[in-house]
Design a protein that fits this description.
alpha/beta, TIM Barrel, eight-stranded parallel beta barrel, 352 residues, 16% strand, binds flavin mononucleotide, 44% helix, two-stranded antiparallel ribbon
Amino acid sequence: MLLNKFNVGLFAFNASSGATLTKSKNRWKAETKQIINLAKMADDCKLDFLLPVARWSDWGGETSPHKNTFETLSLASALSQITKKIFLFSTIHANYIHPIIAAKALTSISRFSKNRIGMNFVCGWNKEEYEMFNINFNLSSSDRYKYGEEWLKIFNKLNDPDIDKFSFNGNYFKIKNGQNFPKVLNKKFVKISAAFSKDGRKFAKKHFDILLTMFNSLDTLKRVNEELKNNSKRKIKIYNPVHIIVKKTKAEAEEFYEEYSNKNQDIKAVDNFVKNLQWSNKKILASYLNQIKQRVSGSLGSYTIIGDKKSVLEQINTIYKSKTDGLAITFFDYSKDFKFFKKNLLNKIRKF
Ligand SMILES: Cc1cc2nc3c(=O)[nH]c(=O)nc-3n(C[C@H](O)[C@H](O)[C@H](O)COP(=O)(O)O)c2cc1C
């Protein structure tokens, strides 16, 4: 289970290019062997969780980032058999995965992983993916969440130990005699909602244990986190995605970042990413990210911590003190960079 008070996990390791849109030839390949080694290494050093992205298409451009992406239910199932303690999440798209399929699959993983599986729920935002599934879903955020709300109601009923069979008659789903056996092992099945918009955060606070959300500045993070937690009727934890570039010196880290995210930026893929945000009605985020294309290329918009060991540790400590409960970390190279992080920073973070 997620035992540490400040959770540290890896994010987006299951997709080629990870959280970058770069032409750098050393970009993350997300090959099967790399992922197996990474999962074992993360398990051995008692990292808290592995959180994959759900992707069905790619970002085009010269390098097609995310073209090779492992599906997250089957991935968690496989990883549960080669790890012992680490908590696993599957990222589930409300629009493409029916709640009965999700409940059945997560139940199976829950049983075979000895209760080490949770769900990261996403309502989706990608035009090409909606088209792949022939779903006409250019809806506003709030309509997406109405759909998500129905989905979740069904999912929760399917996992309720007191419910045998039920029927459901909603706007989006009609179910006759729905059932799911066996149930997930733990009644307190951990659920994350990944969202950024006001509606998305409201939805997460209403139904989820953890909100996975981005932030823009260390200066305002504490205020934002406190507002989110204080205005929530339920106790909610906050995880933030952060991209970490840590090298022996600050200059080396900055040069590395500049090289892959600016000089080798996959400009077309970055354009596609920003255009997609515009399409999905995330206009404020799109206009912001349009101004900082290097950040899109460098981390898909996540807050980026760049520096030597000391300054990276200080920045992580500031995040911890700002009442963030967990870090979903992305690296340029999950193998090499994670090893460096593990050797030099992880034990120090555990002492916060
Ligand atoms: C940290 C974070 C991680 C996300 N991960 C995924 C993902 O793996 N796959 C995906 O399709 N969407 C992902 N999303 C996007 C959500 O699907 C999308 O944001 C959702 O519809 C919420 O919309 P909102 O941010 O406008 O509230 C992620 C969003 C955030 C903030």
